[in-house]
Design brief:
The protein contains four helices and two strands. It is mainly alpha-helical. The mean pLDDT is 82.
Length: 104
């Protein structure tokens, strides 16, 4: 039996998703907060001054164009994804990484 050709996974629409600006924004934050290695790297970079999605995603490109997550299997975060709403990512990460949220 032959496998079907040209089967693609439908891409999420650029519309609100589960309280987020869109699926891409949700997924980016979800992977950052749930992949232990990525979380620790992003937290370290955040502490070093990369405190916006723009500066952080630019810095992360030094590690490659996307992050292949151990947490998510075949899924990844693409640092150049134009659909990701940087302001919402920045605001969320600031809540997690601000000094008042971290333990000493």
């Amino acid at each position: 039996m032959k496998s079907p050709k040209n089967i693609t996974t439908p891409q999420p629409k650029d519309e609100p998703y589960n309280g987020w600006a869109n699926y891409d924004t949700y997924w980016t934050v979800h992977v950052i907060l749930n992949d232990e290695n990525l979380y620790n790297l992003v937290k370290e970079l955040w502490t070093d001054g990369f405190k916006s999605w723009g500066s952080l995603s630019n810095k992360m490109r030094e590690y490659g164009p996307k992050w292949q997550s151990n947490y998510t299997g075949l899924n990844y975060v693409c640092w150049k994804n134009p659909k990701v709403r940087g302001g919402q990512v920045t605001e969320t990460l600031n809540k997690f990484f601000s000094p008042s949220q971290t333990t000493k």
